[in-house]
Specification:
355 residues; alpha/beta; binds pyridoxal-5'-phosphate
């Protein structure tokens, strides 16, 4: 048997989650497939969504070109716009949509040598303070851009810093600032990422931008009634078993000593696969569907789990690292991060797509 680490990607669940986003948000929703669809495979995911999606969002032109070359003809928005003026010709050539987030881009688009006008999503900084025009300067810039012959259509967009935090007032404040900036301009709007789509109905504009919820990620800090399904199951197997007496060290640095006589299972998955090395002892895994725990340090290709309470488990037994029954967000929390990062870090596992 070859190395058993497999990420199974359930494309039906992906489609289900997209339709959930669309139903909750109303209007149109971009499927965000940047960063290789958060580690799920951009081309496969985009193809799986092509019949139902209104368009896609990516971070950079290379990601957009990859989708176009794979035959994706739906709108593709460059969420961060262009980095160098020469990309504008490619944006036109590949019929992409682009964000515009800074004054220097206003000058560049006015000066661009393009003959087919572009669809431009102008980003307003309503409080995240990362990208976007100041809300007070937006109406004048929108007017200037509306007069620019290089632009066919403008959409006003913003991005939330804390849409996942259901008790925070930051999102309503961002919504207010955005609404004031666009008032009376008659532009289409886009405010919501996954958190906005799931939890903030007032943030539903003409276009949603669904990212992590497509992949079944934890888009808010509480599980809600309408909750996406997990899309990725990361599964491996036990490749060796040993019995240790109490007080024995396990793994690099002897960071863990057995507290009792312990059956230890060695699992084919490590930090070179993207499993976080920093997780402490006690981080959950499922062995034959039953909850167990990591003991000892995660190494490059392997990790060790406690089989003492899984008497039926042995060499070849199934181990789920995350997926149905064990949300990636739980593993992420143990590592002090979020499931977005856990998904994006996945590498080397065999990818198996279920259509
Ligand atoms: C501009 C923009 N919109 C939408 C998204 C999707 O966010 P989420 O994955 O939280 O749905 C992102 C992701 O970071 C983004 O940068």
């Amino acid at each position: 048997m070859s190395r058993p680490l497999t990420a199974t990607i359930d494309l039906k669940a992906l489609r289900h989650n997209y339709l959930l986003a669309k139903r909750l948000h109303g209007g149109r929703v971009l499927a965000i497939v940047k960063a290789n669809a958060y580690g799920h495979g951009a081309v496969r995911c985009a193809r799986a969504l092509a019949e139902i999606a209104d368009g896609f969002g990516v971070a950079a032109i290379e990601e957009a070109i990859q989708l176009r070359e794979a035959g994706i003809t739906l709108p593709i928005l460059l969420l961060e716009g262009w980095f160098e003026a020469q990309e504008l010709a490619q944006i036109q050539h590949y019929q992409l949509w682009t964000a515009l987030h800074s004054a220097w881009q206003v000058d560049e688009i006015e000066a661009a040598e393009i003959n087919a006008p572009l669809t431009v999503w102008v980003k307003i900084d309503s409080g995240m303070h990362r990208l976007g025009l100041h809300p007070d300067e937006f109406p004048a810039v929108a007017q200037r851009l509306s007069a620019c012959p290089k632009i066919a259509k403008l959409v006003a967009m913003t991005h939330f810093a804390r849409a996942d935090e259901l008790d925070s007032q930051a999102t309503p404040q961002q919504i207010d600032r955005f609404q004031q900036a666009v008032a009376g301009l008659g532009l289409e709007t886009s405010l919501s990422n996954s958190g906005g789509i799931l939890a903030w109905p007032k943030a539903h504009g003409d276009w949603g931008r669904a990212g992590v919820m497509l992949y079944g990620g934890a888009a808010t800090d509480r599980v809600l009634t309408n909750w996406p399904k997990p899309v990725m199951q990361l599964d491996s197997r036990i490749m060796a078993v040993r019995e240790l007496a109490a007080g024995e060290p396990i793994g690099y640095g002897a960071r863990f000593h057995t507290e009792r006589p312990t059956r230890v299972g060695v699992v084919a998955c490590g930090y070179a696969d993207g499993y976080p090395r920093v997780v402490p002892a006690g981080t959950p895994v499922l062995v034959n569907g039953q909850r167990s725990r990591i003991i000892g340090r995660v190494s490059m290709d392997m990790l060790t789990v406690d089989l003492s309470d899984c008497p039926g488990a042995g060499v070849g037994s199934a181990v789920r690292l995350w997926g149905e029954g064990l949300p990636a967000s739980e593993v992420a929390a143990a590592a002090g991060t979020i499931d977005y990062e856990i998904f994006c870090n996945l590498k080397r596992a065999r990818l198996n797509y279920l259509d």
